[in-house]
Amino acid sequence: MSENVRSLESALHALEKTMRDTGADLVQEISNLKHKLEGLRSSEDAKLSRWARVQLARTPSRPTGLDYVERAFSDFVELSGDRCYGNDQALIGGPATLEGRPVMLLVQQKGRDTKGNIKRNFGMSHPEGYRKAMRLMDMAQKFGLPVIAIIDTPGAYPGIAAEERGQAWAIAESIAKMASLTVPTLSIVIGEGGSGGALAIGVGNRVMIMQNAWYSVISPESCAAILFHDAKEAPRAAESLRLTGQDLLELGIVEEVIPEPLGGAHLDLDTTVANFKEAVLRHLEELSQLSGEEVLEQRSRRFRNLGVFGEN
Amino acid sequence: MSENVRSLESALHALEKTMRDTGADLVQEISNLKHKLEGLRSSEDAKLSRWARVQLARTPSRPTGLDYVERAFSDFVELSGDRCYGNDQALIGGPATLEGRPVMLLVQQKGRDTKGNIKRNFGMSHPEGYRKAMRLMDMAQKFGLPVIAIIDTPGAYPGIAAEERGQAWAIAESIAKMASLTVPTLSIVIGEGGSGGALAIGVGNRVMIMQNAWYSVISPESCAAILFHDAKEAPRAAESLRLTGQDLLELGIVEEVIPEPLGGAHLDLDTTVANFKEAVLRHLEELSQLSGEEVLEQRSRRFRNLGVFGEN
Amino acid sequence: MALDRIFRRKKPQLVVQDDLPELWSKCTHCSVQTYKKDLLAEKKVCPSCGFHNRISVEERIAFLLDEHSFVQSSGHVTPLDPLEFKDSESYPDRIKRSQQKTGRPDAILCGEGRILERPLVLALMDFSFQGGSMGSVVGEEITRAAELALERKVPLLIVCASGGARMQESVLSLMQMAKTTVALNALGKAGLPYFSLLTDPTTGGVTASFATIADVILAEPGALIGFAGPRVIQQTIRQNLPEGFQRSEFLLEHGMVDIVVDRRKQRTLLAQLLDHLGSKHKKAPVQEYKI
Amino acid sequence: MALDRIFRRKKPQLVVQDDLPELWSKCTHCSVQTYKKDLLAEKKVCPSCGFHNRISVEERIAFLLDEHSFVQSSGHVTPLDPLEFKDSESYPDRIKRSQQKTGRPDAILCGEGRILERPLVLALMDFSFQGGSMGSVVGEEITRAAELALERKVPLLIVCASGGARMQESVLSLMQMAKTTVALNALGKAGLPYFSLLTDPTTGGVTASFATIADVILAEPGALIGFAGPRVIQQTIRQNLPEGFQRSEFLLEHGMVDIVVDRRKQRTLLAQLLDHLGSKHKKAPVQEYKI
Ligand SMILES: [Zn+2]
Ligand SMILES: [Zn+2]
What we know:
The complex is a heterotetramer, with two copies of chain A and two copies of chain C.
Chain A: H1 3-22, H2 27-47, H3 50-57, H4 65-72, E1 91-98, E2 101-108, H5 114-119, H6 127-143, E3 147-153, H7 160-164, H8 167-180, E4 185-194, H9 195-199, E5 206-210, E6 214-216, H10 220-227, H11 234-241, H12 245-251, E7 256-258, H13 269-287, H14 292-304, E8 309-311
Parallel strand pairs in A: 2-3, 3-4, 4-5, 4-6, 5-7
Antiparallel strand pairs in A: 1-2
Helix pairs in contact in A: 1-2, 3-11, 4-13, 6-8, 10-11
Chain C: H1 16-19, E1 24-26, E2 33-35, H2 36-41, H3 57-64, E3 71-72, E4 77-79, H4 91-102, E5 108-115, E6 118-125, H5 136-152, E7 156-162, H6 170-189, E8 194-203, E9 216-219, E10 225-226, H7 230-237, H8 248-253, E11 259-260, H9 266-277
Parallel strand pairs in C: 6-7, 7-8, 8-9, 8-10, 9-11
Antiparallel strand pairs in C: 1-2, 3-5, 5-6
Helix pairs in contact in C: 5-6
The complex binds zinc ion (ZN) (2 copies).
One zinc ion (ZN) is lined by residues 27, 29-30, 32, 46, 48-49, 51 of chain C.
């Protein structure tokens, strides 16, 4: 947020306070100022670099998966465990209702503070997380619940134990499972969409992304380390990777970019969630018109057609 | 084997040697002796206590699962791993052919010597074994292969790690998976059929047992420890448990007792395997007449009807 | 809470009153004394430390179901002694003692009922009947409960409590693991949800069959749940077991149960799950989750 | 072995001769010298220590397939630069260099062929083309190979060798993981078997997609196989990796691959598996497993 925006905000708050305190009629002035502020924010947003959006997506106060779950859905019941080894805390899920309609939620969850981030492993799942997701997908299939997958991960965890227990296998199987469902699937990237760890629950009939989220095959830092031999070149890499919502919309990777309040989702959680919920409901409604076979067919066609190449 | 049998055997061998060495015509005498020996063995077999059969089933030289696989089947390809944690060596499996017909083998395997027994954990699986079995059942279902499950385990391993990784869950899921298949399933207890660890792959359209094998809800030793507060009372417990092939046939738990050579399977592997193979082929042939739905229906009915109770 | 109001028909023998000879109850876990009426209001969960006391099948029904909603379906099936099992005491005598003690033919009670107006079929194991062991009768009743749920097109809940298989029925007992599973598979194929609630203790053949193939596995806090019993494991490995081993919370951490849920919250939770997973077959929507 | 006899049509450029400028080859693993003709007869497996040298795609075809049986199907699809990726070298320039080096449009070669008379479709990744990275072309060719197998009603084998996704196509590259999976799901639904053969090295997005959802996963001895590369893991955990970590044998032990199979036995093994799992769709029985 620039100095300009911040000083305009201060002025606005001062006017509002004056009106409240003194009863002076400042309605017109306030309205003018609000309009001006909105314009300024909007033009600043349009100028935001890709790297700035990556940073927005990582803002500690940015809403996490559970913030959406708690506000957009009712009666979420978290179900635990992969029935095999453990219970991953970075990928949680369970049934809930959305305006009375039962759905199955899969949620990549970062911590809301340091303690939370340790518990959630900074949103980086082990194989158990993906195996739990598969179990819940099976349950959704069995009981006819649409799957709503909320994506927010820097990537799957790259550690020894994760490799030992088949990180790649779990991701691959999760992709395959999600691709096979005959219940509708929606995937929404709300923060970071880090590579295979995100795609594991990203096989949606519709894929959406929040305005200041990113989705890429590799993080800007890792990309910079490889291409420019310097992770500090991440801003350059971010530009190269074309990883913002607008980029992905143009590339045909997502169906929709869900707008955030000016300045970012964390500045107005209610508006953010309202936008999210409206989009999810609209797509669910459309998909509910399809038969199970049509759902599978539509999703298969969607992913079959991704990729850009020449032919001779 | 009694003294009587052994001395008669010696006499027979002596006669045979004499005829070979001297050319004397002892055909009639040898035939008589053989007949007598057979009768003696047969009457001794009928008198075998249940405990004696339990001991026969545990004879170190008794044929193991792989002995049957190597002799009755061709081109066995062992497939490994549960795709989750490990590769159990006490429960192995993979596709093979039986007289040209492809089948999926699940084999509980004891070691053939001390080193082998350590590798095979004395035939006691961890959860990984049952999860591998499930994976192979899925494969059998996908490619239309009948499942042939060879049972030989003192029981599932009761250890800390096994509990941590869900021993009960793995067994329960394996039972449920096998119960759901629309490909024919055959289960044959060749040695020890120890409780849930055996039943995990025991949900056959037909269940068979070798003449000197046992199948029970609990080992005689454990039963004795509970009932008589002394594991040494195992012989008594074995009687109570009614755990032999003949018992199980009378109780309607198995369709068939596969005969072993007099004295036990280890005395004549060729005859043993021939009997095994004949029975397996016959039942497979019968089951191959059924549609997938009929296979499932027949198996479901079979297990639905097990149990003895009064009704008022 | 008047337990006798729960049962509309075939009222099972009430044992709750006998359990309460005194006014105060001392928690076996934290030693704090609680006025017994208060303890009952807390569904026999210690208000001080949260310890879940074992409860009878009748109490379980009272704590879980809507008042007057339970209609018993089980009870016609009775145990026999097909193996003429030789034991220090005859099996029929053992059975008779347990029947007299509990007032039911075997270690199981099944029926239909409602949780916050949501219909379901319920099967409850009785640990006080020969350690909740599963023989032919338990297997048959569980199977019939699953079949009843399928017929009624309602979800099934099994409240598990068992030391495992019933030795005196040997391999017949073992076969109940497969038999009950077959019935539960059919229920699942019809898209009807099956929930299990694991209570203290649930081990052996019950854990290794129907208890753990539920769509959602719930467990009461602190319940002992496992395949092999702790004593057997200790004998096998010849070392002490870690603190909390095989308890609900341990199993949650190891990915084996979905939710460890306080007894006082089970009604609400089950109502939510019945709504979520039972929607395919639900006739009219019922919401509002009061306790 | 004359490699040119294997290819009936669309003969790819042969690189094997260039690899053999000298008569003797020293094993990088055990340092034992082998006469190069002998090494080739051993399919470039060191006869002394069993070390599996990396081989070209053409050698792979020669070692796996029946002579003259391979018919190439891939090659019409070529990479573009949809992101106009900014890099130290332009993506089109990088591509051009690799194309000139390997003689193919991208890191993949597909076609039909036979193993001991059993027909199958084959896709082979070329690690020498930008580290076998998967971009839109690799994804499209794998997808078409799966579709071809489905059309022909024959099994599919993918020989994997890849450093992962192709960064220069960013999210388009990532999407190939889902795209190829969709095609493989369709193949599986038709009951046609899919085998993957993991060779040194197979990591990243390829391991986390089509490589590991095969019906049977084979791996060459000593191959590096994993999700994250060893360097990334080392940077994350800041400690040394255990001996043998992420190698085929390690993964076998951890339940992740079916068989670690010597290159010299792959033909026989694949023929057996093709018979076992392909019987649903097989026309006439072929048996006899000669090498
Ligand atoms: Zn207390
Ligand atoms: Zn060497």
